[in-house]
Amino acid sequence: MMKKAKVFSPAHITGVFTVEDSLNPLRKGSRGLGVTLGRGVWTELEAEPSSRWRVEVKGVGAEIKGEVSRKVIEILKSKIRQPYHVRVTHRFEVPVGAGYGASGGGALGVALALNEALNLGLHQLEAANVAHLVECGTGLGTVLAETHGGFSLRVRGGAPSFGMVKKFEAEGFRVVSLCWGGLPTCSVLSNPNLRGFIRWVGEGCLEKFAGNPTVEGFLEASRGFSEALGLLTPRVKAALSFLASKGFQGFSMNMLGEAVFTLVQEEELPRLLKALSHPLFEDCRLTVSEVSWKGVRVED
Question: Taking CA 44 as the corner, what is the angle to CA 39 and CA 49, rounded to the nearest 5 degrees?
Answer without folding.
Answer: 165
